[in-house]
Write a structure and sequence with these properties.
With 134 residues, the protein is mainly alpha-helical. The protein has a domain of 78 residues. 63% of the residues lie in helices and 9% in strands. It is built from 5 helices and 4 strands; from the N terminus they run ααααββαββ. A two-stranded antiparallel ribbon has the order 1-2. A hairpin with a 5-residue loop joins strand 1 and strand 2. Helix 3 packs across helix 5. It is rod-shaped. The protein starts with a helix and ends in a 5-residue tail after the last strand. The model has no long low-confidence stretch (mean pLDDT 84).
């Protein structure tokens, strides 16, 4: 029985010594390389969010101007002279042309429309896309 205890004590010592070596240099370099690649891929994504927001606002402004122009051609006037924000609200509410066709900016939420309004202006009774702002 004493021999049996010595064998288990020796096995425990050998297990402890194999785990206490630590990581090899190549393993550490590999881990650092993987972390570097993850950082290289995620940092541009985080910084592009403001640029993407600007692009989406401009796209929404173009859509609003297009719907407004089409509605005016069909006989529905959403434009409030000299005021972009009420005009955008009218576009979100929608209206019906004498032909029965309905015009409304359905693909845009109220928050998106108010953000897009800064890229719109009213010129000669028309809602116009102005990429540089008002």
């Amino acid at each position: 029985m004493l021999n049996c205890l010595r064998i288990t004590a020796n096995m425990k010592q050998s297990n402890v010594s194999s785990f206490s070596r630590g990581f090899a240099l190549s393993e550490m370099l590999l881990a650092i390389g993987v972390m570097f690649l993850i950082a290289v891929m995620t940092i541009p994504m985080l910084t592009m969010s403001s640029g993407m927001r600007e692009i989406e606002e401009k796209r929404d402004a173009q859509l609003l101007a297009s719907v407004c122009f089409q509605a005016q051609q069909a006989g529905v006037n959403f434009v409030v002279p000299g005021s972009v924000d009420p005009t955008v609200k009218n576009l979100l509410s929608g209206g019906q042309a004498p032909t029965g066709r309905r015009f409304q900016a359905l693909a845009i939420t109220a928050d998106e429309a108010s953000a897009a309004a800064r890229h719109l202006r009213i010129t000669n009774g028309n809602l116009v896309y102005a990429p540089s702002g008002r």
